[in-house]
Automatic annotation (TrEMBL):
Organism: Paracoccus nototheniae
Domain Anti-sigma factor NepR: residue ranges: 3-36
Protein name listed in UniProt: NepR family anti-sigma factor
Family annotation (Pfam families): NepR
Length: 36
């Protein structure tokens, strides 16, 4: 599940011209991973 989320996020950001993920997204992903 987590891998799928990461892949989907990457796909979205590849379509967008930016390859830098906002810090708040990284923080959110970290929180989600920490909960497992």
């Amino acid at each position: 599940m987590e891998k799928q989320i990461d892949e989907n996020l990457k796909r979205v950001y590849e379509q967008d011209a930016t390859d830098q993920i906002p810090d708040r997204f990284l923080d959110l992903l970290k929180k989600l991973k920490d909960q497992e």
